[in-house]
Amino acid sequence: MPKDVILTREGLEKLKEELEYxxxxxRREVAERIKEAREFGDISxxxxxxxxxxxxAMLESRIAQVEDKLRSATVIxxxxxxxxxxxxxxxxxxxxxxxxxxxxxxxxxxxxxxxxEGKLSNESPVGRALLGHKKNDVVDISxxxxxxxxxxxxxxxxxx
Length: 160
Known about the structure:
Layout: E1 5-8, H1 9-38, H2 47-71, E2 73-76, E3 90-96, E4 102-108, E5 119-121, H3 125-130, E6 138-142, E7 148-158
Parallel strand pairs: 1-2, 4-5
Antiparallel strand pairs: 3-4, 3-7, 6-7
Helix pairs in contact: 1-2
């Protein structure tokens, strides 16, 4: 049984677009590769055919994954998010108590997490630690490398 996938409206749209692309353009590309590989002759010793069939299997697996995520998606709307405490959909401004460095994170479901974009999963160590806390709380965060940090929440915004 798949677990609930928490998505923002933007994340839901991105998944729908990915599914559309995979089911149309990408499937056509892979089918064309298989057709071309068959023309090389005996498929039992045809590495191009094997590669194309493997790509097709991976494509169908990804399509199934995206469909499962969409089926079990819970969409978080801006009206559902409060600035009182950190929750999925919050933009959290924090200050590292040790270094004094300020950072801003958007807390999202794991399907949308992207460190490069400043989107932290609600299941990540930092995201999980921040959930439920309020402005001016100092949160102890255990990092995956074994170190611990203290971060003070300086501001909470709605990020959707």
